[in-house]
């Protein structure tokens, strides 16, 4: 029994080591905060980099091929500056930034890299999800990890903040509920709500609840995680949106999906969220599918809270990203890939 265990451990080490080789990652910062009204979230990408994201990723076994594409810059088209859409604050900025995000993410994906987008507020999800679908065809599914569904339209939003609207902009089923959006002709509702799943919901507006119920959206709230555990919830979500296990997975991870004790430096924190341990396990499960195509990590706001709060929040974001890209809590195996059998005590070498 012990001999079989030793062989199993060795084979697992070997398999996990080789699965990491050749993984290519593209980092993209989107220092954008016009999708909501709290200042500071634009500094999220810089804070995540400064606390050592790349260094953490370089420690991952198998040596990731990491390329940092810098930060997105954009200009508002002259003819867009004077145009407005009712109840969509800073609309011209939203349209221009997302178009540039879309172009850059497309370049990263077409170079064969997993695109990791560092936000910025969650309105950037319009650009990242839209272009992921364009790059991979419709063979993608989306996990929206968030305390909020972000399913409001400009007619239903109580704030006009576009970071609460990206899924409604992307969903085919809600296309008829939008007016014409000038400067957004590059973006069309591209994904069916059947191919998205929410995890971590606990703050849902009445209109969003109506849409979720009427359209049968796969939505897993915190009570579901409490009842079934995070592994079961992720398995259930993937079985619903990717039953044949062949789709490229887009994960859009709002840091407010974590409990505010774990990630206090964010603009719309809600108590009762996931623990960091659950967030890490969620991303480890996604990594194990070998189908992660793109990851957004958004709404880290270094201007909110104390220095300790900011460090805790940024560190949580780095843990989430590292788990998605293969960091193992079991520790690193030797760079040679396989431990020599002779290093085990004789009783474990028996067959």
Number of folding domains? 1
Distance from first to last alpha carbon: 9 Å
Describe the strand arrangement of the main beta sheet, using strand numbers: 2-1-3-8-7-4-5-6
Whole-angstrom Rg: 21 Å
Number of helices: 13
CATH architecture: 3-Layer(aba) Sandwich
Tell me the fraction of residues in β-strands, as a range.
5-15%
Largest sheet: 8 strands, parallel
> Element order, helices and strands?
HEHHEHHEHEHEHEHHEHEHH
CATH class: Alpha Beta
Please identify which CATH superfamily we are dealing with. Answer: Ureohydrolase domain
Contiguous runs where pLDDT drops below 50 for at least 5 residues: 1-20
Secondary structure class reads: alpha/beta
Quick one: how many beta strands?
8
Question: Which bin fits the share of residues in helices?
Answer: 25-40%
Q: What's the overall average pLDDT, rounded? A: 91
The CATH topology turns out to be: Arginase, Chain A
Q: What coarse outline follows from CA principal-axis ratios?
A: globular
Cofactor: Mn(2+)
Catalytic activity: L-arginine + H2O = urea + L-ornithine
Pfam families: Arginase (PF00491)
Family: Belongs to the arginase family.
């Amino acid at each position: 029994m012990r001999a079989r265990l030793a062989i199993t451990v060795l084979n697992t080490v070997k398999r996990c080591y080789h699965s990491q080789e050749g993984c290519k990652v593209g980092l993209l910062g989107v220092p954008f905060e016009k999708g909501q009204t709290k200042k500071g979230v634009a500094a999220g990408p810089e804070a995540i980099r400064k606390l050592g994201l790349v260094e953490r990723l370089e420690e991952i076994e198998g040596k990731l091929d990491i390329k940092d594409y810098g930060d997105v810059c954009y200009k508002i088209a002259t003819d867009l500056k004077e145009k407005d859409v009712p109840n969509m604050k800073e609309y011209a900025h939203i349209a221009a930034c997302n178009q540039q995000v879309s172009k850059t993410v497309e370049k990263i994906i077409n170079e064969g890299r997993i695109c990791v987008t560092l936000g910025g507020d969650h309105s950037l999800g319009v650009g990242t999800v839209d272009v992921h679908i364009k790059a991979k065809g419709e063979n993608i599914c989306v996990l929206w990890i968030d305390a909020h569904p972000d399913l409001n339209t400009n007619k239903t939003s109580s704030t006009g903040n576009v970071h609460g609207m990206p899924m409604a902009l992307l969903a085919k089923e809600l296309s008829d509920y939008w007016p014409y959006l000038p400067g957004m002709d590059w973006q069309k509702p591209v994904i069916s709500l059947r191919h998205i799943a929410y995890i971590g919901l606990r703050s849902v507006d009445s209109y969003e609840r109506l849409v979720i119920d009427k359209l049968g959206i796969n939505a897993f709230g915190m009570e579901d995680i409490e009842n079934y555990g995070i592994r079961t919830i992720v398995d259930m979500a993937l079985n619903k949106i990717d039953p044949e296990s062949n789709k490229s997975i887009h994960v859009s991870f709002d840091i407010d999906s974590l409990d505010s004790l774990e990630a206090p430096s964010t603009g719309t924190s809600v108590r009762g969220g996931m623990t960091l341990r659950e967030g890490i396990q969620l991303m480890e499960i996604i990594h194990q599918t070998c189908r992660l195509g793109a990851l957004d990590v958004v709404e880290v706001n270094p201007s909110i809270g104390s220095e300790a709060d900011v460090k805790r929040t940024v560190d949580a974001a780095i843990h989430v990203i590292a788990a998605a890209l293969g960091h193992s809590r079991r520790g690193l195996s030797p760079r040679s890939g396989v431990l020599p059998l002779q290093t085990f005590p004789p009783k474990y070498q028996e067959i």
